Amino acid sequence: MLKALITGGNGFVGRHLQSYLRNTVGEKGEYTISIFDLSMGDDVRNFESIRTRIDQFQPDYIFHLAAQAYVPESTMNPRRGFETNLTGTLNLLEAVRQTGMHSRILVSGTSEEYGYDRDDSELTEESVAKPTTPYGVSKLAATTLCSTYSRIYGINIVVTRAWNHIGPGASPSYAVSAFAKRVAEAEKFGTIINHGNLDAVRNYTDVRDIVRAYRLAIDLESGIYNLASQNTVSTREVLSQLTNMAVTQVQTNENPHLFRQMSNKFPRPNYSKFSKLTGWEPKFQMKETLLDTLDFWRDAV
Amino acid sequence: MLKALITGGNGFVGRHLQSYLRNTVGEKGEYTISIFDLSMGDDVRNFESIRTRIDQFQPDYIFHLAAQAYVPESTMNPRRGFETNLTGTLNLLEAVRQTGMHSRILVSGTSEEYGYDRDDSELTEESVAKPTTPYGVSKLAATTLCSTYSRIYGINIVVTRAWNHIGPGASPSYAVSAFAKRVAEAEKFGTIINHGNLDAVRNYTDVRDIVRAYRLAIDLESGIYNLASQNTVSTREVLSQLTNMAVTQVQTNENPHLFRQMSNKFPRPNYSKFSKLTGWEPKFQMKETLLDTLDFWRDAV
């Protein structure tokens, strides 16, 4: 039996990873999974909390997903982001180091570490990280710490930097999930969809492709690996695809109060380093992901 | 009167900065200086401690020097380094943000943010930061946070990245100060100087040139500025200069137990960005600095 500990295991990505591992047979048989999550009273900000779990569970794999991941909150309250994202990662790494565990660790970094408004045509793992948000800074600090820990203490730590991931179960704080929810509501209640500027371009990967990548990534050598897809599209395109899927006519309305200032530059994510090593490519088409997300909200609203 | 708050104000650099400011007349007359230092019960790790001081003192300038700066300790106890260097900086920036103060801030970063064992021929502010030690990571996280705070919240924050600074009053934990102390002891007691490998090349600036640079830097625009000198020399050269200054014959002895593994690569620090903007160049010759350091230990041992 392979033992996998998932921090933030009840979050959006954590739940998908749980389900992926439960449906996958590891090389030593099925996975025994231990969930470490704030919703269950576990807190990575508390060293003893994570240390005790690691000491008792003795994980082969640690998927460290626990994070304060909502960017606007990180700007309002940078301290919470730092405590969770950086101190939380430090606590986890220290717990592994101090207990002498030989767990392989995956730490989920983010494309936000590279920052916005930059002139590069594409972003590889070698691109200079210039985070634009406290969230990005906290994650860059955490992932830089990982590189240092693997070098100094010989711990195997894989860092992934994923671009936006979407799919069923995502919080409606995020644009794509919010749009899907509003389309589901519009179908049911005939509501109008208010939106701001739709020019922002982002790169989207299905969360189920992401968790499959995590499982592959954790067996790689220590290092940083970009995760992304070919789906670099505007928010306009996302909203249009979703409204086209609606079973009723859906009315959208541009509301200037919802406008946010944003950069139109968007360097292409390069994830060939990971792809070449593992053969991984996203399996889900954007259309399928959006439909599954819409169906999720159709059930929920 | 210009009001200057110095965190870590009783440390090696802090004491030199105090003395520099006390002997310099600011544009609005003399400086009123407030010292914030662990030796006086002040702790940047405690938000209320630094917030209260800033709120009450209302500084025009904040020189943020408080740090856990001894690299071997940062490797033994990364948590303390992170709490002091990163959380401490976060607390200071949050205190300024939350009190709405318009203080200009200087945060002392370090060349350790660039890391060792790299192939560059020289290091500018644009070079990729790849810290090799927990100390370097903690400082990189702090200085990246500074860039984010100046961008998001409009706070003026200057980050300096200085290479090794030396001079009278430095802790004998550091090689140059340790050698000077041993030479002073050898002169007095006839002791033999044991040393490890002397091949490590470093760049040295007199601490008095550094604090003069801090005073110039804090009036610049937000950004990162390298501080260094032309003195890139081996530890062998430093020891040899010091023993040549001794008034007695000093015997040195290579001790294999003191050998440490180190990289021989040492990219040249480029500090022309700062030099061009301010006209600053180091005034102290290496010889003068070493003699003053030796004299300091002659008085102390």
UniProtKB/TrEMBL annotation, chains A, B:
Q: Cross-referenced InterPro entries, in alphabetical order?
A: NAD(P)-bd_dom (IPR016040), NAD(P)-bd_dom_sf (IPR036291)
- Give every NAD(P)-binding domain span: 5-290
- Gene3D superfamilies, A to Z: NAD(P)-binding Rossmann-like Domain, UDP-galactose 4-epimerase, domain 1
Per the record, the domain of life is Bacteria
SUPFAM superfamilies in the record: NAD(P)-binding Rossmann-fold domains
**Which PANTHER family does UniProt cross-reference here?**
DTDP-D-GLUCOSE 4,6-DEHYDRATASE-RELATED
State the protein's name. GDP-4-dehydro-6-deoxy-D-mannose reductase
